[in-house]
Each structure stands twice: as C-alpha cells, then as structure tokens.
Design goal:
- The protein starts with a helix and ends with a helix.
- It has three domains: 87 residues, Nuclear Transport Factor 2, Chain: A (Roll); 145 residues, Nuclear Transport Factor 2, Chain: A (Roll), CATH 3.10.450; 118 residues, Glucose Permease (Domain IIA).
- It has 418 residues and is an alpha+beta fold.
- It contains seven helices and 22 strands.
- Strand 3 and strand 4 form a beta hairpin.
- Helix 2 crosses helix 3 and helix 4 packs across helix 5.
Length: 418
C-alpha cells in the first residue's frame, strides 16, 4: 500500500530534523565536557607564583604552654627547646595566656620556617629557623599614638565613672596607682570628686588597642588637690612628680591590697568580736574577698612565716628605717615565699583568707617601728628622690605644657568662661 505523497514528505522532514538535533546535542555535550583547545588568538595567562609560605594559626588553650602547643603541631622536643631558647631574652614564656595566638609559617616545600607569637595586639615575637637552629626577636608593631585629654567626676566609684566615659579598667588602675601613696581611692573618694588626665591612646589599623603613657593626672577631693606629671630625665629614668619636682612615689604604700572597707581600726581598747571583751587591736582590718592579692607595702626581707596561732597564716617583712609589716589571716602564701627572701614594693606575698581566729575573710595588717606598734593609717612616709637639680629646668618646661593640656576644655574653665 503506497503512502500519500504528503505523508512521505512529513516522515522525511521529521527524520532530517531528528538527525540535526542529535548532532547538535552531541556537539553541545562535547563542548561542555572537553576542555577547549586554545586558539592562536587566545592569550594564555601564566599561573601566579606560589606564596613563599603559608600560615597555620593556633591558640593557647587553658592549661596549655608553648611547648604543648608546638608538640601537637608536630615539633620535636629538641626543636621546642631550641625555639624557646631563641625567644628567652625577649619573651617570658611563663607569661603567655590562654587565647594568645601562635602562627606556624610553612615554606613552599612544607618545612617550618617561622613561628610567630602574638601576645595581644601590641606584642609580637618571631622565631626563625636558621640552619639547624633558631633565632628569635620581638617584632616592632606599628601603632598610632593619639593624645587625649579627659575630664570627669566621680559617680559611685572612680572605676564606674571612667567606665561610663568608655574607658577600661587598665586606665583606672594606672591612674589610681599614681596617687596610691597619698590617697586611698577605696575609702577616701567621694561623689563629685573631680579628675582630669592627659593620656595616649594607641590605635592599630584604626582600632583602639590600649593605652600608652599617662602623661598627667589630677584628682580633687574636697581640700585635697593632687597633681602628677610623668617625666623622663636624660638618663632615661621615668617617674611621676608633683609640680615642684617631688616624687609621687613614697617609701611605703598606704594600703597593702584592694579592699571593700576597713572593718576594724587601730585601737588599744577594742571589743573583740570573738572573745567579747575589750582588748588591744594594734593593726587595721581590711575586709576583702578570699583570694584578694596582698602586697608588700615596701621593699624588704621576709623575716617570719607562720601557720599557727590566732593570726593563722601570717607573714612578717622587715623594711628600712626600723619598720616591720605583718600580714595575718592569709588563705595561702605566694609561691616561692620563704624566710630570707627579698621582696619588692607591690610584690604579692599572699592572699586574703580567714585562717586563725577570724569571723570572716579579711587582712589584719600591722606595722611596727623599732619594735613599737604604730597606726598604719596615721603614718607619714618620706617620698622618693625628687627630680635632680640639673634637670629641673627641662622638667618645668614640660610641666608648663602638660598643665595647659590638663586644663584644656575642663568643666571648671568652661564655667569661668561662661
């Protein structure tokens, strides 16, 4: 049976179209799957050169040391020892803290070339492989220093007041330490006390990373007006001095710790909280949390350590000018403390506790001179050495500049101007 001409034409057309579609599909598949051969007019781009090293970052975890971090990253015991020795001059490895970053830099062949240690944003140390050994140094960090003048008044506490201004605890501590020999911020500061300071703020890549020099400071509380200026003489000795060039640093601290309150004062007739009868209390009780660090009030030598009696764990330190200081009811002693050890002013010698006869955690602090008890709160201690006479003119010029900066935009100046 013969098909009509039109039907035959339709079948032929369909077969032709199917063939063309199949060829096109195969060509498209080959184009997608097979890399194109470069044509003469295509410009080939050379591959970029490999980086000379790549870095693997790690961080110190709680309980970590640099040795344990390097060990888990494949370093041998010998390599760890040599690397640590290369950094010993510039970095105390015991001061590394959890969170400090350690970068291990590998060369193109996969060998370790460098190790970088970042202690916060300002301190970077690097150990480089040199042959079979290592060499290490501190790497300078580029920071921008901006001098700022700050004014404020106390609302609640100095810490809370500076924090409300956007400052950190570091600045509060630095400020308070300048006047630590003349003013007790824990017991003597009052609401509406005024403070001013000239301080450097450090920036890295536009971000605030810490404080530089606190160049000038002032604190006004009632009739007390304290002013201090940082001065570095030509011999590179740096210290804080009052406007006349007298050292702000005294031979003894006013208090040996950061405390909440004075719970008992020096007295020859105090009602004892345990024995319920009047007895001499020849010291000052500072109420504080258990574990609060207790500091030596001056340079001296440890002459007694006791764990017995009503004073519980106690330490006695001998100082110059016939003074001895005693610290009672400690929870524990500082590591390495022993009789005969020399201690520096502000060195931790123990921690607040409630050992011995005590109704709660506190430090019973006692002071004697030539064997006689004296009231620590009423002692006037001599200052440190003043600005040397030959440097006074340079000091006074610097003071004049800083005094003007200290008064810049102060609330008092604005009030007078108004």
């Amino acid at each position: 049976m013969r098909r009509p001409p039109l039907l035959r034409l339709a079948i032929v057309t369909a077969l032709v179209l199917w063939g063309v579609s199949a060829i096109a599909a195969v060509s498209l598949w080959q184009w997608l799957m097979i890399p194109e051969v470069p044509r003469p007019w295509h410009q080939e781009v050379a591959p970029s050169a490999p980086e000379p090293w790549f870095a693997i970052p790690d961080r110190l975890r709680k309980g970590d040391s640099l040795a344990s971090l390097l060990y888990r990253n494949g370093f041998t015991t010998r390599e760890i020892h040599d690397l640590a020795q290369s950094l010993a001059t510039d970095l105390n490895l015991r001061r590394l803290q959890p969170g400090d970053e350690v970068q291990i830099l590998y060369g193109s062949e996969g060998e370790v070339e460098k190790v970088r240690i970042h202690r916060g944003p300002l301190d970077t140390f690097e150990a480089r492989r040199e042959g079979e050994g290592w060499s290490g140094e501190q790497i300078p960090v580029q920071v921008e220093r901006r001098e700022n003048v700050l004014h404020g008044s106390v609302r609640g506490s100095l810490f809370a007041s500076m924090e409300a201004m956007g400052e950190t605890a570091e600045l509060v501590v630095n400020f308070a330490e300048i006047f630590a020999w003349d003013f007790d911020f824990y017991t003597e500061s009052r609401t509406r006390d005024r403070f001013s300071l000239v301080v450097e703020k450090l920036y890295r890549d536009g971000n605030f990373v810490g404080y530089g020099d606190l160049k000038a400071a002032r604190y006004v509380s009632g009739k007390t007006d304290l002013v201090a200026y940082l001065y570095e003489d030509p011999t590179a000795k740096r210290d804080y001095y009052d406007p006349a060039g007298n050292s702000m640093r005294k031979a003894f601290l006013r208090a040996p710790l950061s405390f909440r309150r004075i719970s008992s004062r020096f007295s020859y007739s105090r009602l004892h909280p345990v024995f319920k009868r009047r007895m001499p209390h020849l010291g000052v009780d500072y109420a504080a949390r258990v574990g609060t660090p207790v500091l030596s009030i001056a340079d001296g030598t440890v002459v007694a350590i006791s764990r017995k009696g009503g004073g519980g764990n106690s330490v006695t330190v001998r100082h110059r000018m016939g003074y001895r200081s005693a610290y009672l009811h400690l929870s524990r002693f500082a590591r390495g403390l022993r009789v005969g050890k020399r201690v520096a002013q502000k060195e931790v010698i123990g921690y607040v506790g409630a050992t011995g006869i005590a109704t709660g955690p506190h430090l019973d602090f006692r002071l004697t001179r030539h064997g006689e008890p004296v009231n620590p709160l009423k002692q006037i201690f001599p200052p440190g050495p003043p600005v040397p006479v030959q440097y006074l003119s340079g000091f006074q010029k610097q003071v004049q500049l800083l005094a003007e900066r200290l008064e810049q935009d102060s609330p008092r100046r604005r009030a007078v101007g108004e």
